[in-house]
Design brief:
five-stranded antiparallel sheet; elongated
Length: 270
């Protein structure tokens, strides 16, 4: 079984698929499986291996599917008696997720685009940059970029593969260019789509998308104006606001001050 699990993990990783591995790391009392037992949960919900079956497996399976959406790892304690299992012991399960990481697609190589690329690189996030100006889309200006798409936005942006782990940040040098990029991104599978600009610009762009027949579900994915409200002014401050919102979306955060979150957790445990 161990060889089968390792082979499947290798296959999924090579295929670039998302999956989770749940491992029992501690056990107390009577439990259906021993420490070290593993279960793979694929993106489609199917499993390989077992950590005990029944209610405990169903519970961990649900947690794993949630964690896969945000590519995060978590250790959970499961009281088997509370899951309706007769054995009544307790197990600790480590759930690690695997799969493609966030990729940052920056439309616009200006000051904010450069700041985004710099911060993305420092965070270990692959960076792709698109701009229609050769002086703003080259290896010298963006040495950290994995890929550069230099040319008219109408030609380059539609060729960029956008999957659920892509964050598209639109910060071009003109409203028309912004909308061109937005029009392409909004009907893609991108997990995050943000466009810089004023409230009026955002309203106008969304209204135009509706006139073009874009669904409300697709429009709801657009973050415009982009970023969290932190009073940002400089390019790097704006970048912080954008990354805060972007990570909140991908990691499943609350967007609230940590102080409030901790206080609430403490009250819940009391």
């Amino acid at each position: 079984m161990v060889d089968k699990l390792l082979a499947e993990m290798s296959r999924l990783a090579d295929a670039g698929e998302v999956f989770a591995v749940a491992t029992i790391t501690a056990s107390e009392g009577s439990s259906p499986r021993h420490i070290g037992s593993k279960m793979i949960v694929r993106a489609d919900g199917s499993i390989v291996g077992s950590i005990g079956g029944g209610a405990v497996e169903k519970y961990v399976h649900g947690k794993a599917k949630h964690l896969m959406k945000h590519r995060v790892t978590e250790t959970i304690d499961v009281d088997l008696s509370k899951q309706g299992m007769v054995c009544g012991g307790k197990v600790t399960v480590f759930i690690e997720t695997h799969g493609p990481v966030i990729r940052l697609v920056i439309c616009g190589g200006g000051h904010i685009g450069a700041a985004l690329a710099d911060m993305g690189d420092k965070m270990g996030i692959p960076v792709w940059v698109a701009d229609d100006r050769p002086d703003f889309c080259n290896e010298e200006r963006f040495p950290q970029a994995e890929r550069l798409f230099c040319g008219p936005y109408t030609e380059t942006v539609p060729t960029i593969p956008l999957d659920p782990m892509c964050a598209v940040v639109i910060v071009t040098h003109g409203h028309a260019h912004d909308f061109t990029c937005l029009r392409t991104a909004v009907e893609s599978d991108a997990g995050y789509i943000g466009m810089i600009g004023s409230r009026n610009k955002a309203r106008t762009a969304l209204k135009r998308l509706r006139r073009d027949g874009v669904s409300e579900e697709a429009i709801a994915k657009v973050r415009a104006p982009i970023g969290l409200d932190v009073g940002a002014e400089s390019p790097y401050e704006i970048t912080v606001a954008i990354f805060a919102e972007m990570l909140n979306v991908f990691r499943g955060g609350t967007g609230r001050p940590m102080r409030e979150v901790v206080v609430e957790e403490v009250k819940t445990k009391e």
